[in-house]
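#struct-queue
[09:14] JT: dropping the first one here, sequence first, then the structure tokens:
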Amino acid sequence: MNRTTDFGAPIEFGMHHFYVEIPTSPKESISIFEDFGFDGDESRRETIECRLILARELWTKIRDDARRDFNTRLKSKKQSTGSWTTGKVKLDRFLGRELCVLGWAAEHATPDECLVISQKWLALRPEERWWLYSKTASEAGLENQFERGWRKALYCALSDGTSIKLRPKKKTKIKEEQLSQEETLSLFDFIDKGDI
């Protein structure tokens, strides 16, 4: 059994893991970071990327479901369990990816939608969450890329879909004129006179 801390994060120095920074002030946002570590090569510079900054109000709605899910799985592997305490809470790199998927879906949500998002997230298998993480992180995985591609898609996919406000595409003027002409034509306007 490997020695771990918090939510399955390796104790060894320089290992790849995630961590959540939870400020002591109950109104401050939380941040989720990915620490790529040194991969056994201490001469390399450590790389850390902020994946998400989430409003505290939304974090409090999703954190307990994530904690229960992670701890159940950690117990089954006979590893120590974790809790969300102020300061830096470390996670296994796979659990960190799953938490990012949940957080990315919640960042556009209302507090009420977070309950639906958490339930749909819990229904996903870990492998599905990892796949969603890799798709999202490849194009919009940094803290300031919240209005892009898969990042917005996670919210749409995991929320209930009733209050999604995505801006419609702006139609070009030529397209609008064609649409207005099509609306005035009847079925008989499309029949060639030679066919009668």
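[09:21] JT: and here's the second one, same format:
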Amino acid sequence: MTQPFHFGDPERTLFGVRHPAATTPCAAMLVCAPLLQDGIRCHRSLWALAEALALAGTEVLRFDWFGSGDSGGDHVDIGFDGLLADLRVARAFLDTAPGGLPIRVLAYRSAALPVLAQFAGPSAEPVDLVLWDPQLVGRATVSDWRRQHVMQVRETGRYPRGGVVAERDELLGFDVDPAFLDALAGVDATGIRLPAGSRVLVAAWEQDADLRRFIATQRAVGVTVEEVLLDPADRPAWLEPKVFEHQAFPRRSVAGLARHLAAEAA
């Protein structure tokens, strides 16, 4: 049974949901949701994945970034440095759970940007990451969001009388600090080097040039990379404006990824 709770600094409270392992736990997983509107759209996918992993014996913690979901703060309080701080707090919280379980960190889509920035560097400790459909170039991610915002305003029939302007501090229902988007746009994770000895599982519906470069960079510095190809026919239409508000639930991919991760943890 899921266990919702708040944790962290009282002035920067985070909301978490624990999915307890149904059997004696063999591993722990920290699940990081995509940023902004994608985090809302992917809620069902991450819940289903967490439940499947918990049933197979993995302790799972999902959390909302500060300024989003049921965590403290407002949308405008989301900042890149704050995302890194949230990651440290959430991982430390999971690390203090009884049993001293090995921890994997799963980042879905745009969550890969703060996760990779947080754990990169030659002096950092080796990490165990799962990158699901990772967005690795911040500038492209922000550009996609802005383009989608314009499509929602102008091309979906929401405002038949026109006159709506896509403001710089408004993005897909979020009031955002432009400095946050600028900082995110400045991250290019394709060349980030994780510590030698780290392990990364990349699950993607397709591999583009950015992802291939990232994988090659990691292997060159002694990082073990496993690649899982998901069924391309199951990939959500992320940038299709007519279905933008639908829950993005690639059922077959969620089930397949859960089976793969559970088998590795066993």
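[09:30] RK: nice, looked through the second one.
[09:31] RK: The mean pLDDT is 92.
[09:31] JT: good to know. The longest strand covers residues 58-64.
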